[in-house]
Amino acid sequence: MNPRERMAAVARLLQDRYGSLRARSAEPPLDLLIRTILSQHTSDRNRDLAYARLREAFPSWEAALAAPRDRLAEAIRGAGLHRQRAARIQEVLCRIRDERGELSLDFLGKLPDGKAAEWLLSLPGVGKKTAYVVLLFGFGRPFFPVDTHIARVAQRLGLWDGRGDPHDALGPLVPRGAELSLHLQLIRLGRGVCRPRGPRCSDCPLLPLCPTGSRRVESRPRKEER
Ligand code: SF4
Fold first, then answer.
1. Exposure of 144 by Cβ count < 10 A (0-12 exposed, 13-18 middle, 19+ buried)?
2. DSSP string across 159-217
3. Does 226 have pLDDT greater than 60?
4. Which residue in 3, 110, 126, 154 has its CB near the most CB atoms, within 10 A?
5. C-beta of 199 in contact with ligand 1 (< 6 A)
6. For the chain, percent helix, then strand, then coil, each to nearest 5?
7. Model confidence pLDDT, tens digit, residues 162-201
8. Does residue 41 sit in the same domain as residue 127?
């Protein structure tokens, strides 16, 4: 099987295990962008707490932009790196307002995929993962964000060699239309089965495709479940 066929097989096996997972965001894309900026290098729980406090303190993005930076930082303290993140959020809001005349990302819906991605990636501190999350979850565009779980699973599967940006290696392999569900399925697998330490290979639906899992099961059939 070539890499595309292997990724398609991964998608089929995960579909059988988990079914379709769909979680298109109902929130405005700008909210999603700020939430995703808060999620960088922190847990989902801390991100959600910080985001809730941020919205409570500043119900509008205009208010968050106009606020003293220290107050904004205080509101998102729970996410860590709060001063740095507060600066980043205000820089992003400032750029959107100055360039678009309003604090909204709805205009991205009218741009072609490539242009929309290019624009988001031009924002300060916005990388491919963040941009693709906004485009996939906020607009239903065919982008494939790669988080740490997906990168680990892909590397163990031999679909990414660990060099360069995993988005560039994995994105072209994903079957069109499967981006959202496969992203969520791989994260679920990475959290519960293909864990960073002690992957549960003998319980993994991807074992028939996985060189790492085959080696582990052959060499340590009993130890892996500990
Ligand atoms: S077989 Fe093991 S290493 Fe391979 S994807 Fe599954 S849990 Fe991860």
1. buried
2. S--S-S-HHHHHGGGSPTT-HHHHHHHHHHHHHHTS-SSS--GGG-TTGGG-HHHHHHH
3. no
4. 154
5. yes
6. 65, 0, 35
7. 999 999 999 999 999 999 999 999 999 999 999 999 999 9
8. yes
Same domain, 135 and 150: no
pLDDT at 119 over 60: yes
Regarding the beta carbon of 213 and ligand 1, being less than 6 Å apart is answered yes
CATH number at residue 39: 1.10.340.30
Residues 45 and 108 reside in one and the same domain: yes
Ligand 1 pocket, residue 156 CB under 6 Å: yes
- Is 89 within 8 Å of 57 (Cβ atoms)? no
Domain boundary residue, one of 139, 171, 202: 139
Q: Are 75 and 53 in contact (CB under 8 A)?
A: yes
Do 45 and 111 lie in one domain? The reply is yes
